[in-house]
Every structure is written in C-alpha cells, then in structure tokens.
Amino acid sequence: MPDLLEVKNLKTGFHSENGFLPVVHGVSFNVKQGEIVGLVGESGSGKSVTSLSVMRLFHDTPGEIVEGEITYKGKNLLDLTEKEMTSYRGKELSMIFQEPMTALNPVLKIGRQMRETIMMHMGMNKKDAHQYAIETLESVGIPRAAEIMNEYPHQLSGGMRQRVIIAMQISCNPSLLIADEPTTALDVTIQAQILKLLERIQAKTNMGILLITHDLGVVAEICDRVIVMYAGEIVEEATAVELFENPQHPYTKGLMNSVPKIGSKKKRLDSISGTVPNASNMPKGCKFAPRCPYAMPICQEKEPGLIASENHSARCWLLDEETVKEEEKQIDY
Question: What is the CA radius of gyration of the chain?
Fold first, then answer.
C-alpha cells in the first residue's frame, strides 16, 4: 500500500517567556491508505502536538513547526499557504478532537454547522447540503437526524455529539482522519459504539486513520500498527500483533503491565514510577532513563537511536548487544 501520510523529522515547539520550548523532537512515521495507526503514550508525551502539526493548526498561537516534512499524497503540507491548507482541512484531512462539547459551536444549530462544512468543500447549494447532512448523520447511527439538524449541541448527549463530530468530519470523504482521544469523555458502552463506528467507516471508505489514545485496549481492538511516544519522541513502533506479543521498550512494557488483566490475582496494578519530564527540563541521555528500572550508566549520558528489525523498532540501549556487553564489563571491573 502507498503512503498516504509521511512525517519526517518533525520538530515542533512553543514560544514562551522563557524562550522556545521544543515539544516534539524529530518524529518520523507514516500512515498508509486503508490503515489504522495507533499513536500511544501518557499525557504530555507529545501525541496531540504531533497531530496538530500534521493539520497545521498553530496559526495565531505560540506553536511553531521548526523543522521537518509532512507529506500528504506526495505534497509537503508545510509548503502550502494558510489559504491552501484551509482547502485541505475537512476535504482531504479531517480531525476529531477530544471533547465533543468544545469541538462544536454552542450557539449554532447542528444543521448550520454541518451545512457550512459541506457547502465549503463539496460545492453544494444550501438545500442539497441540508439533505446530504441528514443522510450523513443517519450513516453514523443518529436517529431522528432531520430533527437533530434543528437542535443545539447542549441538547445532545456526549455520545450523540461525538457522532455529530464524526459525521461532520467524514461528510466530505477525506482520505485521512485523525482521531484525538475520540472516546475519552464517553462511558464504556458508548466508547465501544464509537470505535465500532470508526472501524465500519474505515472499512467502507478505505481511509487512513491516525488514532491518538492512551488506552491500549482501544489499540488492541482496532489498530493495524502502533507508534509509542514518550517525551516528544517515538520510542517503539510495530504491528499491533507484534507489539502486544513482544514489547521491547521498557516504557511500552510498563504501559502494558499497568493494564488490568482478567484472571490476575494481583491486588494492586503495576505502575511506572515518576512522571513524563517537563519540556523545559528534559533529562540528559535517554529521556526515559530516570523512570526506567533497567537503566545503565550510558542511558544517563547518551540518547539511543531507533534500533530496527523487521516490522519492529525501538529506542533503547538494551537492544544494542555491544553496548550491553560493554556496560557489563565496566560493572564487572
């Protein structure tokens, strides 16, 4: 399958009173047509900033992309003017945000918000856009869609609002959908429904989906491939099956060990000690070293690169056999 999206050496940060704070450090990944890629990590790992970078949503904010390429269907999005990028958003690339209440305009009826998107990108008149909007709402499982067109966001439940957001974002048939924690604010039953909906839409349209989440259960449910981020870097990447069967980075192992397992007799869940480092105070060497139970002296001094094998790569000195032998010699000495 060809690459739909290819991100190379992406570096993004924010201007502040204390100067420029880098948040995403040289991230590279791709999403293929018809593929669901999970982007996983704790809060503060840089997942959302990465997605906002792809959509170039830092206009009139302190955020800035300072280096890298974001290539969509062979076109570097960073070369586009803001006006050109606006024509891509919604039509070619769409994004579902975390909180459905804030993603919708609270003072505009659902119908108007749906029609505006469709009329802008699909070239329909108001009447045709209205009917198309109703059909799109029905396609995501919304009952009495014609009536909901005349309602305001606050009149709908969280699950219904999220369905409206999804309908709005798929209405113009984008090739790439970025879903940033699309089920976070919803209860477990509604979460499952939304995930099944995304899966069904993806199967029907063959769009690529970049799913941003901290929930490994969600990843196991629907993702083809998984990217694990920590402190603004990719620390592991593999197919979903390979990652769950053979996690290689200590951070990935820690995330998996913190998930409750059916049949386990443990009274307490395992946890990763410490917190994700602040962007203004990154540790020297491996960024995970201060929290890692396997850290060696070299981890405190020098940052590892991504060590790749077939369908799997991880950023860890433990995977470098020569380094491990050298460290063991020094300990023995």
Answer: 22
Whole-model pTM: value is: 0.91
Query: What does the pLDDT read at residue 1?
Result: 67
User: What CATH number did the domain enclosing 7 receive?
Assistant: 3.40.50.300
Q: What is the pLDDT of residue 333?
A: 44
Cβ atoms 122, 152 nearer than 8 A: no
Closest residue by Cα to residue 147 from 134, 165, 166: 134
How far is CA 322 from each of CA 250, 304, 318, 326, 327, rounded to the nearest angstrom? 19, 13, 9, 6, 9
Is residue 11 assigned to a domain? yes
Among 72, 81, 69, CA closest to 27 = 69
Count of the separate structural domains present in the chain: 2
- Co-location of 45 and 178 in the same domain: yes
The residues, any chain, with a CB within 8 Å of residue 212's CB and separated by 6 or more, are 38, 39, 47, 48, 50, 51, 178, 179, 180, 181
For the chain, list residues with pLDDT below 50: 333
In a shared domain, residues 230 and 140: no
| Domain that residue 115 falls in | 109-169
- State which of 169, 192, 215 marks the end of a domain: 169
Closest-CA residue to 320 (of 332, 309, 333, 311): 309
Tokens of 36: 């669901």
Q: In the chain, which residue ranges form alpha helices assigned H by DSSP?
A: 47-55, 82-88, 100-103, 110-122, 126-139, 145-148, 158-170, 188-205, 216-222, 240-245, 250-257, 297-301, 321-332
Continuous segment of H or E residues that includes residue 37: strand 36-40
